[in-house]
Design brief:
- With 119 residues, the chain is of the alpha/beta class.
- The protein has a single domain (3-117), classed as Macrophage Migration Inhibitory Factor, CATH 3.30.429.
- It has helices at 14-32, 74-92; strands at residues 3-9, 40-46, 62-67, 99-104, 112-113, 116-117.
- The strands form two sheets. A four-stranded mixed beta sheet has the order 2-1-3-4, covered by helices on one side. The protein has a two-stranded antiparallel sheet with strand order 5-6.
- Helix 1 packs antiparallel against helix 2.
Length: 119
């Protein structure tokens, strides 16, 4: 059950955002083996003044945060990063340098679903 958060600048079309979400989701199915229904994703959009972009990046710069259950191998996480980057770049014409991905793995005891602690 990955939680996906994507931070981008405002100004992209609904089609762009849908392609972005679909690309990330498909990459997670392929790399982490999640189910197709497992779509806990959100896009946060920021005005230019509220989203600082590092030097050398373009207006397409994005931060993708994945919060996942612990236990995935280093290889699975590497594959997730590579597949997300590849699909987003291919489908949206973004340079790999404009995609920053971080994976967070809080212990199961820090997850709550339907009012119950997971771990």
């Amino acid at each position: 059950m990955p939680l996906v958060r994507i931070d981008i600048r405002k100004g992209n079309s609904p089609e762009y955002k849908k392609t972005l979400l679909d690309s990330v989701h498909e990459a997670l199915i392929e790399s982490l083996g999640i189910a197709d229904w497992d779509r806990f994703q959100r896009i946060n959009e920021y005005d230019e003044g509220n989203f600082e972009i590092p030097e050398g990046k373009t207006g397409n710069f994005m931060i993708i945060e994945l919060t996942i259950f612990p236990g995935r191998s280093k290889e699975q996480k590497k594959e997730a990063i590579e597949k997300i980057t590849g699909k987003v770049c291919d489908r949206l014409g973004i340079e790999p340098a404009d995609i920053f991905i971080v994976i967070n793995e809080p212990p199961l005891e820090n997850w709550g679903m339907a009012g119950k602690q997971k771990g």
